[in-house]
């Protein structure tokens, strides 16, 4: 049987979904290229990863805590298990140890990566044709893609020098209200956002929380890269500053532990009043929806993450500090290599510039020519270097002259060599 | 922050989502009860489950097949991995060995359980406000719940003595067309459907495929319970009879391997013609959507399932045959206990009846009184027996006098004792 794509759901024609396929295809076509494209974590930290040991650590804990025999504890791995998760207590404890959140395990839903947490949260909060979601542009494609899949309309809010264009967001909120609609939430990554690398300072974080209260918005906080801050420079997350349950925290274990476990979480401590007068948490609603998406997160995967937390005193930050050293080093090497190979003056084509994030996985570069898939293909085939075109991170088709360089999973010599090649390529193709 | 549920997505108020929460809550409240409620597989088969060994079996295969060093093969567990899956070749081979499907691994998408396969398939096929999905009623709640979550309208088609009311479905297709809409697909479980236990005979399967071609429908085949057929009695699945890629097969490893891995799959070999004239498979579209739901299925979980397949000659059916013996035994014990404890005549309240499926996990019972949550609560608190009210399996509020008894994960003495208690309860409460 054959049909045309316009017989399928519209999200499949969205460039956001198409670009991921294109990038995977380019990477498969040039397996030997030095790739600044994917934001994957470095594997060096997994030298001591021992699947069976991590699982056993968790099972020993679960047996003791729940008063189970070793055999019965092992059954936890085999069965479906609760939709909301098995390791919610460990997630809540890590968030308390690391950020002082003091939230109940009942407010946690363990998800298949932060991506499922985004999908569930968007679905719970948005009624079709009624609720809009605002995103800070440029924006992680996972949230825009999930919104497209759910037919949720998005509003783009621009980044500014000091953070977010709140005037623009206020205007969008009012326009929505005038239209009988509502901007329900703002998705924001306050720490080294993907792809911009921007950090919101403390005053901006507080202003954002005030703004959310005034305009009756929720904030969907994605803090995947907060752990990469230089020692002593980390700021409290929005959820840590949140006194009125305005923030839903979307979390991941992919960057600090490992992507292959596919474990993330949502913290959703908002109160929902049901028609029969009972009260529940937004987390309960997310868990109900999760029954219809993945039923539950693999208990094997949860045990792996639970074991890693337990072996590190229950703290995710303790694991993250160790990892952060490498990412700080790689980012420093990437910025130094750019300075060295594209020095100001004759060595740097006019119109080539980049930002200097203090953490995270990414540097954002601007070119005097379109940084599109045709340019990427040329750079890959002739210079063996890959990067990510930025237009997919914009809702409005801007960003066409920007590219994203990720340094997270490369080794020092690859970073140096990759930037040297990229510099030669840019000197050749830029006018 | 607090809000009312009518500020949330409408699916959260749907009884289908609510009932799952209620059942979990009842089971948690009566942990000592004999539960005929959940359709979970028996754990006895997992006596020899060795997580590390299964993973190593898969890694040895992957290393050899892809020419990877052992270290590099191990990295497959750590990384994100392709959205469409890692073990697609093993899934395709198992389907070929077991059912002669002869499909390409490219037509397979590995998913987080069959549930995610349902969600992705519904999403790809249905445009908002335009496409409808038909389901055979009573119907597995996973498909109705996923449709609700995606705002997809459903059409109920009744079961008949010999299968499916195709006249009713034809009428529904015509009514949709007259309304400028389209019934895009029919969800059907041809073998021991959950919850009805019905099996479509071979002639009905062929008639259904002809019907689908004539009315231009897709068939979404869920074959979770096919492996429980008595030896020699299995019928070819719809996908095995499908000559025109009319069938999307939604598969699970939960019942034969283990639920805890959360691995399922879709086989979607339909051709999609894109606007630029290129062709791809529906499986490619499902994989693109999966990026926005769970990114990819945990490679650790996939390695577990891959290892189990490899250790059984690549066949899922070989594993399933072993398991089927227990389910055949349990079903026989359940039916015999019902006959014994509710004998015709004075021992059986008027209006109490049940069906006699030849396989699967479930028996469906009809009562002369509402089999609702109040009755369940009474049965649990006073007789220590749990079951599943059936109204959630109907779209139209019927089925209120039916309950489902699952025998899959109980032991013989529990089945006997549970039915004895249920019989006493029914004699007490039925008029």
UniProtKB/TrEMBL annotation, chains A, B:
Q: Does the keyword Transferase apply?
A: yes
Q: Which cofactors are named for this entry?
A: pyridoxal 5'-phosphate
Which terms does the UniProt entry file under GO BP? alpha-amino acid metabolic process
The keyword Acyltransferase is assigned to this record: no
A Pfam family annotated for this UniProt entry: Aminotran_1_2
Aminotransferase class I/classII large domain location is 89-422
Q: Which UniProt keywords apply?
A: Aminotransferase, Pyridoxal phosphate, Transferase
> What's a Gene Ontology MF term here?
pyridoxal phosphate binding
The record's annotation in InterPro entries points to:
Aminotransferase_I/II_large, Class-I_PLP-dep_aminotransf, PyrdxlP-dep_Trfase, PyrdxlP-dep_Trfase_major, PyrdxlP-dep_Trfase_small
Origin: domain of life: Bacteria
Q: Which residues form the signal peptide?
A: none
Its protein name is GntR family transcriptional regulator
Q: Per the UniProt entry, what species is this protein from, by scientific name? A: Streptomyces eurocidicus
Q: Specify the taxonomic lineage.
A: Bacteria, Bacillati, Actinomycetota, Actinomycetes, Kitasatosporales
């Amino acid at each position: 049987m054959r049909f045309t794509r316009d017989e399928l759901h519209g999200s499949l024609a969205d460039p956001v979904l198409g670009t991921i396929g294109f990038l995977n295809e380019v990477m498969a076509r040039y397996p030997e290229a030095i790739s600044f494209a994917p934001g994957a974590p470095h594997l060096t930290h997994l030298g001591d990863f021992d699947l069976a040991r991590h699982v056993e650590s968790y099972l020993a804990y679960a047996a003791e805590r729940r008063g189970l025999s070793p055999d019965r504890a092992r059954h936890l791995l085999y069965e479906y298990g609760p939709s909301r998760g098995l390791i919610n207590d460990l997630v809540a404890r890590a968030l308390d140890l690391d950020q002082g959140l003091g939230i109940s395990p009942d407010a946690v839903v363990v998800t298949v990566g932060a991506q499922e947490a985004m999908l569930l949260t968007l679905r719970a909060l948005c009624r079709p044709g009624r609720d809009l979601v605002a995103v800070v542009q440029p924006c992680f494609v996972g949230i825009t893609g999930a919104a497209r899949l759910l037919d949720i309309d998005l509003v783009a809010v621009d980044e500014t020098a000091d953070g977010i264009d709140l005037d623009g967001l206020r205007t969008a909120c009012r326009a929505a209200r005038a239209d009988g609609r509502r901007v329900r939430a703002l998705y924001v990554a306050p720490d080294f956002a993907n792809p911009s690398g921007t950090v919101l300072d403390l005053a901006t974080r507080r202003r954002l929380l005030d703004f959310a209260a005034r305009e009756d918005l929720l904030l969907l906080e994605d803090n995947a890269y907060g752990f990469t801050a230089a020692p002593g420079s980390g700021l409290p997350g929005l959820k840590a500053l949140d006194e009125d349950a305005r923030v839903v925290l979307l979390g991941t274990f992919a960057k600090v532990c490992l992507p292959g476990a596919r474990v993330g979480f949502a913290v959703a401590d908002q109160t929902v009043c049901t028609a029969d007068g009972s009260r529940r948490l937004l987390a309960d609603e997310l868990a109900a929806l999760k029954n219809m998406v993945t039923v539950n997160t693999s208990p094997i995967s949860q045990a792996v993450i639970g074991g890693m937390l337990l072996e590190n005193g229950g703290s995710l930050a303790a694991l993250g500090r160790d990892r952060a050293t490498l990412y700080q080093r790689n980012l420093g090497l990437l910025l130094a290599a750019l300075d060295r190979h594209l020095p100001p003056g004759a060595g740097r084509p006019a119109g080539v510039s980049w930002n200097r994030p203090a953490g995270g996985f990414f540097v954002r570069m601007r070119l005097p020519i379109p940084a599109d898939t045709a340019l990427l293909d040329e750079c890959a085939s002739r210079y063996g270097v890959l990067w990510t075109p930025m237009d997919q991170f914009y809702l409005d088709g801007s960003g066409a002259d920007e590219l994203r360089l990720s340094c997270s999973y490369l080794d020092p010599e690859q970073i140096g060599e990759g930037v040297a090649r990229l510099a030669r390529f840019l000197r050749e193709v830029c006018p």
